[in-house]
Every structure is written in C-alpha cells, then in structure tokens.
Design a protein that fits this description.
about 60 residues; elongated; mainly alpha; about 0% strand
Length: about 60
C-alpha cells in the first residue's frame, strides 16, 4: 500500500506542477476551477502519506 500511496502522491505532485506552471491564478494560490481539484487531491494524498509515515515510525 505504501508504494501505491507514494506513487499516487508523486503523480498528483507532477500533475499539479504541470498545471500550476501555466496557470496564473493557481500560482498566486487563488486556484482556478480546473486547478482546485488537482490541488485538493495533492493535499489529501500528502496528508495520507504523512500519516502513513508517522504510523510506521510509531510501530518501530
């Protein structure tokens, strides 16, 4: 699962970066209608991945 979660997070990061490179509103943190769901997915996956890392550390 962790590998899949990391892969999804990495893909979401790449997708967000590609979009935000050409979108002025998204670069200024005022997300456009297309960029908002991309940013939300990235943020959700980042939260999930960080939770996974914390859980893994706690079990060591």
């Amino acid at each position: 699962m962790a590998d899949d979660l990391h892969a999804r997070y990495t893909q979401a990061t790449a997708t967000w970066r590609t979009h935000s490179e050409t979108c002025k509103p998204c670069r200024s943190e005022q997300h456009c209608p297309a960029g908002d769901p991309l940013y939300r997915r990235l943020a959700d996956l980042l939260d999930a991945y960080l939770r996974h890392l914390r859980t893994r550390e706690e079990t060591r």
